[in-house]
Amino acid sequence: MQGVEYSAQDTDLTVDPVVRLFPVTTLGTDSAPAEFRITNSNATQTRTLGALTLDGPHSDQFALGANTCSGVTLSANGGYCTVSVKFHPTSRGSKGACLLIPSNDPETPTLTAFMANYEASAGEAMRRMPPVLSALTIPDTMIPGQTYSLAWSLAGYHLNYSSVMALFDCTGVAADCGANYGDATRFAESGTLGPVSVTPGVWQFNGVVEQRFNYAWSFTVPLKREDGSDWPAAGTDIVIRFYSTDDIDQERNKGSVSLMVPGNLGTRYYDTAGRRIVTQIKP
To answer: Is 91 in contact with 80 (CB distance < 8 Å)?
Structure first.
C-alpha cells in the first residue's frame, strides 16, 4: 500500500505573511508599517540572507522600514528576523510590489512576498460601473445657420469627467456612419468640455454616491456641408456620439476618449446597437 502524503513546506526559509494588503492611504503619507518575519526551519544548518530589496511595477510606492534581516545569519531550527514595509502612495490606483529576500538557501535562493493596496470603495465603484449617458437635450431637427444649445449628463462614480460631443454627416452613408471618432463624416465637435455643474445622483455603492456631470455646448449649424454642397432638400440624418475621459487619463497623458453608452434616454435615441443617437438637419 502506498504511503500517505502530507502537505509540508519544501524550503528551509519561510516568510510570513506571503501576501500583505495595505490599507487605503492618503496620497503622500505613510501607512502604518507592516512586519514580515523570515524564519529558518532547517533543523541543523544556518542560513545567511543577502540585502532585502523591493521590486515590481510600483516598488517606488513602498519603502523598507526597520530591518533586522539584511546580511544576517539565521540560526538553525527556528532562527528568525523581521523587516517592516510602509506603503507611501503618490498617485491613485492599484499598486503592487514584491519584497525580495535573497539567501544561500539552495532550494529557494530568492524568497518573495507580495504586497498590494486595498481598493478604496470609490475606486471599486468606478471600476464596476463606467459613466453612462444619463440625460440629453437636443432638438429633433436643426436648421442651417441657427444656433442650438445642446445639453447632456454623464452619471458615474469618478471624481471628475470631461466629455466630447461629435456630430457626423450621414448623408448617403451606410448604417455604420460615425462608428469611429476619426471618421471622415465627422463635421463638428465640441472639444473637451468640463461639466457646468455636478449634482449628487441616486445610485450608491458601499456608501459612495454616484455623481451627475452636466455639460452644455452651443452649436451653430453650418450653412453648407463640409464639401461645400447644400444640405439635401429632404433633410439628412446626422449621428451624434458622446465620449468621456477622466482626470486619471489626463494625468497619465492619455489623449483617448471612451464612447458613451446611453442610459435610460427613451427609445427614440437608440439605434439597433443601442449606442447611437440620431437627429436631423433640414435645409
So the answer is: no
Say if residues 38 and 15 touch (Cβ distance below 8 Å). yes
CATH 1.10.287 fits 124-281, yes or no: no
- The residues spanned by each domain of the chain are 13-118, 124-281
Task: Please give the model's pTM, rounded to 2 decimal places.
Answer: 0.55
DSSP strands (E only) in 59-95: 62-67, 73-74, 79-87
Provide the b/e sequence for 208-219 (b: ≥16 CB within 10 Å): bebbbbbbebeb
Provide the residue type at 116 as one letter.
Answer: A
- Encode 95-107: b = buried (16+ Cβ within 10 Å), e = exposed: bebbbbbbbebee
Phi, psi of 218 (to 5 degrees): -90, 125
Reduced to 3 states, what is the DSSP secondary structure of residue 123?
Answer: helix
* DSSP character at residue 18: S
If 0-12 CB within 10 Å is exposed, 13-18 middle and 19+ buried, where does residue 196 land?
exposed
Helix or strand holding residue 248 (H, E): helix 247-251
Domain range 13-118, CATH class: mainly beta
Quick one: DSSP state of residue 189? E
**Rg of the chain over all Cα atoms, to the nearest angstrom:** 29
Query: Alpha-carbon distance 132 to 156, whole Å?
Result: 7
Q: Cβ(49)–Cβ(74) under 8 Å?
A: yes
What DSSP state is assigned to residue 193? B
Q: Can you give the pLDDT of all 283 residues of the chain as single tens digits?
A: 455 554 445 568 899 999 888 888 888 899 999 999 999 988 889 999 999 999 988 999 999 999 999 999 999 999 999 999 999 998 877 788 999 999 998 888 999 999 888 766 666 666 666 777 888 888 878 889 999 999 988 888 777 888 888 888 887 776 667 777 788 888 899 988 999 999 988 877 777 788 889 999 999 999 888 888 888 877 777 888 888 877 665 555 544 455 554 443 343 333 444 444 455 555 5
